[in-house]
């Protein structure tokens, strides 16, 4: 909105955000994260509108953005104070530099709650766009800068080198600034109903809750057969190359198991598979952050049990650790801190290799983001980082990938049937600037309260991808122990997973036996030669991913 000088509302954004108060300890959060995201998107849309040649330019500043007394609680309705000069009086395209830099400064100040120091070099425009972007991303304010906003601010600064053609500028603003902010401020991730009866039962989210899981327990007869074939092929692959590694290739089996943390709704204490997992040491420990008793990690909802079931059977040499963070499908906003605590515990105490997050959030959560960053940073002692897998979400073709699956240092997983076909009810559209991995997540087998069930959703594609990753870590430990630690990074693991997948449209469908061309050697009656053939190909894939050969 615009207003004349005599009609400017009384409260500036700088005052609301308390930018001139330097004591970060006494300030909680003047503008909550969701409101900040909405405001940033509104301002980005205004920037796009004002990039039209017929519109006046303005220097973006928190001192020139106001809110009416009745609108202070609504961050999506700012007033922009500007001199409305005729088009011919507005700055020429050559003055784009202060225009884009001032917007970068505004984004940083809104997000961090602090003024940009003069040492950053924005005011005198010292330094190249790349150095300015690096400086802005490392500046410290009262709040930490979200990773997505670092990229958006970098895009604003990069506009200084942009062709001044009007269409080029508009296209850049839309794709590099507006769209990323729309992804950050998208609607809640709610499971899309697949028939009329489910649709009638779908409820709107309560404003103080976060929906975690994207599961559906439905009958898809056409998907069951391909799902069973997929799991059969995975079992054959693991029996030869994971369980049989030490014996078939003359390499002693290393006792250290790959450790996987399942951060979910807990795990059941029933079932033969559950008892066997505990007996043979494949279920190591559990802990709860969902209630007062940390030792009560019993699953009363079922979701965590289904995830554990998939990993137990899909990764026969992995050991699981269970972190209970919820009793059901929803948690309160305050309960998100339990997820962060569980992630930190899995990294610092359990020292796991992989973290499975079979859920997606509507927006980034600051405390969870810090925990994930801690997990994915390389440990200076071991030289490894923790691999984090997360559900892409299943809100269908009209939605975006869930958070944290859209983070660069997280491996997001979409759901597909056993043939690699994606169904819009279960997976969001692919992202242009991220890998788009898919795993079996439709018609997967599980058990609950003594009954066999079929589950579908990206929630159940994640454990399948985690199992495949755990198997490859185990394979690397056996065949390339000197390079094993190099695979413990999201970038290296993504590179390997690409080579273990089949291209299906814009997605990479994970099927590790594809690289071995299973089953050619069964026809020749030569399982040993078959194994040698696969080992050679798998080693080549690992060398390519790890060493870049």
UniProtKB/TrEMBL annotation:
InterPro entries reported in the protein's UniProt record: DUF7580, Peptidase_S8/S53_dom, Peptidase_S8/S53_dom_sf, Peptidase_S8_Ser-AS, Peptidase_S8_subtilisin-like, Peptidase_S8_subtilisin-rel
UniProt signal peptide: none
CDD domains named in the record: Peptidases_S8_S53 (cd00306)
GO biological process, one term: proteolysis
One Pfam family in the UniProt entry: Peptidase_S8
Limits of the DUF7580 domain: 30-186
One Gene Ontology MF term: serine-type endopeptidase activity
Entry keyword set: Hydrolase, Protease, Serine protease
Domain Peptidase S8/S53: 258-496
Active site: 269, 303, 459
Family per similarity comment: Belongs to the peptidase S8 family.
The protein's name in its UniProt record: Peptidase S8/S53 domain-containing protein
Organism (species): Orbilia blumenaviensis
Upper taxonomic lineage: Eukaryota, Fungi, Dikarya, Ascomycota, Pezizomycotina
């Amino acid at each position: 909105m615009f207003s004349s000088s005599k009609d400017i509302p009384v409260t500036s954004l700088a005052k609301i955000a308390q930018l001139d108060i330097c004591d970060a300890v006494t300030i909680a959060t003047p503008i909550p994260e969701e409101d900040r995201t909405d405001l940033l998107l509104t301002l980005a849309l205004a920037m796009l509108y004002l990039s039209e040649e017929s519109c006046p330019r303005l220097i973006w500043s928190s001192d020139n953005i106001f809110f009416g007394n009745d609108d202070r609680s609504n961050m999506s309705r700012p007033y922009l104070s500007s001199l409305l000069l005729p088009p011919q009086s507005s700055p020429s395209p050559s003055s784009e530099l202060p225009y884009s830099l001032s917007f970068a400064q505004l984004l940083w100040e809104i997000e961090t709650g602090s003024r940009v120091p003069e040492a950053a070099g924005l005011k005198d425009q010292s330094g190249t766009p790349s150095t300015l972007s690096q400086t802005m991303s490392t500046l410290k304010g009262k709040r930490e800068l979200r990773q997505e906003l670092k990229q958006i601010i970098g895009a604003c600064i990069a506009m200084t080198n942009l062709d001044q053609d009007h269409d080029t500028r508009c296209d850049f603003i839309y794709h590099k600034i507006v769209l990323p902010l729309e992804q950050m401020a998208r609607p809640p991730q709610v499971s899309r109903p697949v028939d009329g009866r489910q649709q009638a039962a779908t409820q709107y989210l309560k404003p103080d809750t976060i929906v975690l899981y994207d599961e559906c327990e439905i009958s898809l007869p056409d998907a069951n057969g391909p799902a069973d074939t997929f799991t059969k092929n995975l079992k054959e692959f693991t029996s030869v190359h994971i369980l049989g590694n030490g014996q078939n290739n003359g390499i002693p089996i290393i006792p250290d198991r790959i450790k996987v943390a399942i951060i979910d709704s807990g795990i059941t204490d029933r079932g033969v598979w559950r008892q066997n997992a505990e007996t043979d040491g494949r279920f190591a420990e559990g802990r709860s952050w969902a209630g007062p008793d940390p030792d009560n990690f019993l699953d009363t909802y079922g979701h965590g049990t289904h995830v554990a079931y998939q990993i137990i059977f899909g990764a026969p040499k992995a050991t699981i650790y269970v972190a209970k963070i919820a009793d059901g499908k929803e948690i309160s906003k305050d309960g998100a801190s339990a997820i962060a605590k569980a992630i930190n515990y899995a990294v610092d105490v359990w020292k796991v290799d992989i973290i499975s997050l079979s859920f997606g959030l509507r927006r980034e959560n600051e405390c969870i983001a810090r925990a994930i960053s801690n997990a994915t940073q390389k440990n200076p002692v071991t030289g490894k980082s923790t691999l984090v897998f997360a559900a892409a979400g299943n809100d269908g073709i009209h939605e975006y990938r869930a958070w944290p699956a859209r983070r660069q240092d997280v491996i997001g997983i979409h759901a597909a049937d056993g043939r690699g076909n994606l169904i819009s009810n279960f997976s969001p559209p692919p992202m242009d600037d991220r890998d788009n991995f898919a795993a079996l997540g439709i018609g997967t087998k599980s058990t609950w309260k003594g009954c066999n069930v079929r589950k579908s959703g990206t929630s159940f594609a994640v454990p399948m991808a985690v199992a495949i990753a755990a198997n490859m870590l185990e394979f690397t430990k056996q065949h390339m122990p000197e390079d094993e630690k190099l695979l413990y990074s999201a970038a290296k693991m993504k590179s390997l997973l690409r080579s273990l997948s089949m291209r299906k449209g814009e997605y990479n469908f994970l099927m590790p036996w594809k690289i071995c061309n299973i089953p050619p050697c069964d026809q020749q009656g030569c399982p040993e030669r078959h194994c040698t053939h696969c080992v050679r190909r798998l080693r080549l894939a690992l060398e390519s991913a790890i060493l870049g050969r």
